[in-house]
Specification:
By secondary structure, the chain is α/β, with parallel strands linked by helices. The protein has one domain: Metallo-dependent phosphatases (Purple Acid Phosphatase, chain A, domain 2, 4-Layer Sandwich), CATH 3.60.21. The protein has 8 helices and 12 strands. It has helices at 14-26, 45-55, 63-70, 77-91, 96-101, 144-150, 227-235, 243-250; strands at 4-7, 31-34, 58-59, 106-108, 113-115, 156-159, 166-168, 174-175, 183-185, 191-194, 208-213, 217-223. The longest helix has 15 residues, at 77-91. The protein is globular, with a radius of gyration of 17 Å. The structure holds zinc ion (ZN). Zinc ion is lined by residues 9, 11, 37, 161, 163.
Length: 252
């Protein structure tokens, strides 16, 4: 399989997206797959949509795309404010809303399953490290939530949504990128790989996160980008709440 860059949760962060795409090309990526949440939070949603629509072989619908279509139900006030502004921006660009409305919730390729949240609830279920066996209450050795997800896949499944990179294997164990030297061999087996977030990392590391995949081995990448300019763009947009800019600088 040709080397594929898998990106997620760009959230309208154009400097982060450009830095990630440049790194992926430098590393020899020939294809691009996107797991959703291109928009929401950040100041450049339509620019990110335009670039990725042109570039990606597959784009999955995220919960922020869904909220642009249906309204920000269940969103916190900051995220909801960003969705209202984002929808107005998207409506200014011809064809973008229809494009969003046609995005699939799941794509199966020869080597991978692509969803935004989880295999059992593609749009909006979170799968955290805390759902894996090492973090369950004492003496519990079974996670019904993860079992439900693994029933829906028979090969590596790529997700985003939590904005925290890592792998959950078929034994329901968690491996962080640092624990595998940023290289995880799936051996083609069912597992759930979270590629992290390009535009709003939440693990305390402000660098953009994405992954490369050759059909078997996942390589986790962290990329330095101009965080200040992404934050400033949010602060300078009147209808976007300022804390959404500040959190980029703090990495959560
Ligand atoms: Zn997201």
């Amino acid at each position: 399989m040709s080397l594929t860059a898998i990106i997620s949760d760009i959230h309208g962060n154009l400097p982060a997206l450009e830095a990630v795409l440049a790194d992926a090309r430098e590393r020899g990526a020939e294809r691009f797959w996107c797991l959703g949440d291109i928009v929401g939070y950040g100041a450049n949603p339509t620019e990110c949509l335009t670039i990725l629509r042109e570039l990606c072989q597959h784009i999955i619908r995220g919960n922020h795309e869904q909220a642009v279509l249906d309204g920000p139900y269940g969103f916190n006030p900051l995220a909801a404010a960003a969705i209202r502004w984002t929808r107005a921006e998207v409506l200014k660009v011809e064809d973008q809303l229809p494009f969003i409305s046609e995005l699939p919730e799941r794509v199966d390729t020869d080597h991978a399953v692509l969803v935004h949240g989880s295999p059992s609830q593609p749009l909006d279920e979170y799968l955290f490290r805390e759902d894996t066996l090492d973090h369950l209450p004492r003496n519990r050795d079974y996670s019904p939530k993860l079992a439900r997800s693994f029933r829906h896949i028979d090969r590596p499944c790529f997700v985003g949504h939590t904005h925290i990179p890592g792998v959950i294997d078929g034994e329901f164990r968690w491996t962080a990128p640092a624990e595998c030297d940023n290289e995880y061999d799936t051996r083609g087996l069912a597992c759930i790989v979270n590629v992290g977030s390009v535009g709003q990392p939440r693990d305390g590391d402000t660098r953009a996160s994405y992954a490369l995949f050759d059909g078997q081995v996942v390589t986790f990448r962290r990329i330095i980008y101009d965080v200040e300019s992404a934050a400033l763009a949010i602060l300078n947009t009147r209808d976007l709440p300022d804390p959404l800019g500040r959190r980029l600088i703090e990495g959560w």
